[in-house]
Amino acid sequence: MHELSITQSMLDLVLGEAEKAEAESVAKINLVIGEMTGVVGQCVQFYFDFLSKGTAAEGALLNFKVTPTTAKCRHCAKKFELGEFDWTCPYCKGNNIEIVGGKELFVESIEVE
Amino acid sequence: MEIKVVKDILGANEQIAQKNRQLFDSHHVFVVNVMSSPGAGKTSLILETIKRLKGKTRVGVVEGDISSSLDAEAIGKEGVPVVQINTGGECHLDANMTSSALPSVPLKDIELLLIENVGNLVCPAEFTLGENIRVLISSTPEGDDKPFKYPLMFHQADAVLINKVDLLPYLKFDVDAFSKTIRGINQKVKVFPISCTTGEGIDQWVSWLFDQMKKG
Ligand SMILES: Nc1nc2c(ncn2[C@@H]2O[C@H](COP(=O)(O)OP(=O)(O)O)[C@@H](O)[C@H]2O)c(=O)[nH]1
Ligand SMILES: [Mg+2]
Ligand SMILES: [Zn+2]
Ligand SMILES: [Zn+2]
After folding, report:
1. Which residues in chain B touch residue A25, judged by CB atoms under 8 angstroms apart?
2. CA separation for the pair B129, A8 (Å, rounded)
3. Is CB count within 10 Å lower at the N or C end of chain A?
4. Does the Cβ of B201 fall within 6 Å of ligand 1?
């Protein structure tokens, strides 16, 4: 459900950028969404189709890049993807880790005409 | 034509949250964002906290949980100012909703503001309100696998309160393993096993909260 407010914020951001570039329409929006945010691309698409009606972004293609939840071991400094039910480092079995990826939620770029 | 943007989708929320924070700071009000799934014990914790702080700190409450206005009534009976936010069915509070409630909050007269967020473990993690600390309540009947399902929430919490420990004898819930899992991804977190029913652990939580307030 939080996709509704996230999509509205994303649309506002995109329309602002398009206006700054004096573009007539937005053809494509490249988004980066971290796995940890729980944001579902399909839901964003659903709300986007609805919210963008009558705006310069109507009909724009949404492209999602999903980044996995990535951790870095504070002991051996190796990086790995966080397991679903196991948060220990697969290399040294340490459990003191730092989350370094998967929290992203941003507009990377847009294609305008 | 391609335009590089690289901007946070929730940047606008972040900006409003910072304004809220400035307002809180200018009134020397310490703000706590209380989050949990529905029924984990947010209202109960707020009530217990208010009782313990009576005569020590002047408290105000912002009630964002849509589950009932009974929550606001119960808190009002404790004699503290409480403002109900009408979330219009949203599944989380955001900085803007918080900001619109603030004119009704007597910031001049309080030192601590407890905000009860909407019962949900997903989106409140994304939307900062301008709070000083984030407190997450996870109750024992929900099971000890919650961190694995909602890592962002547990990663960002300043304190995790394991509520309803009075029910531990009837449940499979490993408090030590649970705490260790959270500390693994969140080095700064404080974990407090508590029971709002028996009062166990509440003094420890309140005294920690009091210390955080003094630090500002
Ligand atoms: N056994 C037990 N029940 C509790 C405890 N804390 C809260 N409850 C009960 O859990 C239910 C939900 O609590 P509430 O504070 O309204 O949760 P909220 O939805 O997060 O605000 C109520 O029936 C409370 O009485 C506790 O420590 N132990
Ligand atoms: Mg409640
Ligand atoms: Zn939400
Ligand atoms: Zn390691």
Report:
1. none
2. 18
3. C
4. no
The pTM of this model reads 0.94
Task: Give yes or no for a contact between B160 and B154, defined as CB atoms under 8 angstroms apart.
Answer: yes
Contacting residues of A for B7, CB less than 8 Å apart? 13, 17, 106-107
Residue B127 CB partners (closer than 8 Å, separation 6+): A2, A5, B10, B13, B17, B92, B93, B94, B95
Nearest CA in chain B to A25: B1
CATH superfamily of B2-215: P-loop containing nucleotide triphosphate hydrolases (3.40.50.300)
A6 to chain B, any CB pair closer than 8 A? The answer is yes
Q: Where are the domains of chain B?
A: 2-215
Q: Do A107 and B184 touch (CB under 8 A)?
A: no
Q: How many residue pairs bridge chain A and chain B with CB atoms within 8 Å of each other?
A: 103
Checking if the pLDDT of B80 tops 90, the result is yes
How many residues would you count in chain B? 216
> Is the CB of B36 within 6 Å of ligand 1?
yes
Say which residues have a Cβ less than 8 Å from residue B58's Cβ, sequence separation at least 6. B80, B109, B110, B111, B112
Q: For residue B67, what pLDDT band results from cuts at 50, 70 and 90? A: low
Architecture of domain A2-112: 2-Layer Sandwich (3.30)
In the stretch 94-113 of chain A, residues with CB closer than 8 A to chain B read 95-99, 102-103, 105-113
Confidence of residue B66 (pLDDT cuts 50, 70, 90): low
Lookup result for tokens 């693994």: B184
How confident is the model at residue B142, as a pLDDT?
97
Contact B133, B32 (CB under 8 A): yes
Q: B116: CA distance to ligand 2 center in Å?
A: 7
